Amino acid sequence: MSINSVQQCSICFVNVNGNNGYIRHIRQVHVNDRQFGTPCPLCHSKFVFTNLKSFINHFRKHMLHDPFNEEPAPDLCVNHDAIYLDTNDDFVDELIISDHEQYDQLEEIKNFYIKMLLRVREGHILPGVVMKTISLSVSSLLESFSMYLLSKLNINLDNPIPRHVNNDIEKILLEVSKNEESFISSCELYFKYIKPKEIQLPTGNKAYYIPIRDVLMSLFQKKDFYECIKKEKKYISHFHEQDIIYHYRNSEIGRQHPILKIKENTLSLQLYCDDIGVVNPLMGKNAAHKLTTFYFSIDDLPPCYNSSLNFIHLLLLFYRKDFENENNRQILFNQLNKDTECLENDAHELGGFTCSFNSGRCCRYCLIHHKDMKHVYKESEVLIRTTASHDFHVKHIKNVPNDKSLYGVNEKSILSTLSSFNPITCLPPDIMHDILEGVMPKIISSLLHTIVSTRLCTSAQLCCKINSFIYGINDRRNRPSTFKEKDIRDKRVPGKAMEKYCLFLNLPFILIDIVDRIPYWFLYELLRQIWDILYSDYPRKSWLVTLEDLIQEFLQLFQTIFSEQFIPKCHFLLHAARNTAKYGPLKRQMNLRYESKHHLLKKIANRCNNYINLPCTISKRVQLRQCYELMEEYIFKTSGKFHSR
């Protein structure tokens, strides 16, 4: 049995006025939803429509064929005497005042217009000047529509009422779109825009901090956010004291953490720091702007949401050169430390470790020297850093600064004032930088060079195999960069991290006709087994002994066969088994999605084309985009429901 009339939106649960009101609401509010999805409210089918046009066609067919649908069509036979009223009529004035008191339609128009600007401007990352074009175009369209409607209804075009209404609407449009500040003020009023705080630095530059408390408050005000966190934490608790390590909370450090162990209603946050380069296209590389970014994400969200860029939030943005000054670093993190303390009542540099990987003790997990890395294949043969030893090293270099290279520690971490942070336990490895951009390209380039040197095929034939390979539907967007013969000779793999990863996964299929004859192919197979364990969503404690043996065998063979290709990132692999036990699945600690967020910041900088005080421009636009992403009451929209296990 079908439903006669829809009274509530199936996506955002807003009350609607019947079937026609429902269709109008869908077309006005959800037309630009990036993940549109809803079942039909007029039938019992559980099919979810993800295309707006097909859904509206389906819905209208129900309305046409439903004999019980008694919803009257809009009456177009208007009583013209009732419309063409004298403006001096007291009854009209009372009626207008009464209607205005009950329902302010101008406020709704303003709200809808701001929402439309956010969708158009921030959804497509357009320059701010596009607002004036939109406001003028909408005003012209409104005026043309009013004249057409009045002429069809045989109403005098000089009637002052529609003219006054048009003027009021036009005033709203121009007021919102007047300049950037007026638009931001409107977003603050209607959609809780979080304004970046300006931090004046002694060097004369400015940094911009987005209050972490305000962002978290904004998230928790969404109707489905807390419920989603609560369900995920309940799911995580199922793996306590089990063989599976699903989350940081199931790991050794998570179970022993002084705050997580005592307080039940806690939130686990991930902080990420990295540099990005933005180049002014009009001035070339000489006008490169080096910026340092800090992001944070909530680790207690389900992976399907945590991987979305919508839930990676900007925290700090400033010029890279300002971070090199110790006084600036203290000023920059003063406000963050205060906010984090209230919430509680590139990682080497953030932890205070040495940032050079070509000399000294450059591993933040052990005290091995750079020159000894190639000769150590067991973790039991190195001295592991502990919280006690690190505190001693920090204290020693404070008294004797010249001994920094002795321990591989430069200074006390700027985040050490936080009771929940320690550089030894709170800086997990990043398998994207260590493996996808480190070990994997070394193995690929070494094997490709070996194929050519053993004359299994020429470099030209090998490049042709790689470049002409037909990738599957899931790999096409990460198709590797075009290989050149020079890349094989120089033992280099061009492209981004995901392009290198795509090549690594598809290499056996690309070389299918010669794979049985490739010398040292067992190195690829060993690394593939290691990666399958490290990249697992549900690694087991019982796997870690096997993982340690595989890594030991791989490092020893790789160093013996391709010793010139051995880099410090190969040594970092030595600690992977212990780090999985310490931090949980390393896949969840990977920085790949944060790197994708960089792309958004670069795109904003290039589209805005404003390179004066770049951190200010980018931080404001990033917050406006966050405003656009969080404007709905339900932020986990999939047919009006959030993900459930």
UniProtKB/TrEMBL annotation:
Coiled-coil region list: none
Domain C2H2-type: 9-30
Protein's name according to its UniProt entry: C2H2-type domain-containing protein
Species lineage: Eukaryota, Metazoa, Spiralia, Gnathifera, Rotifera
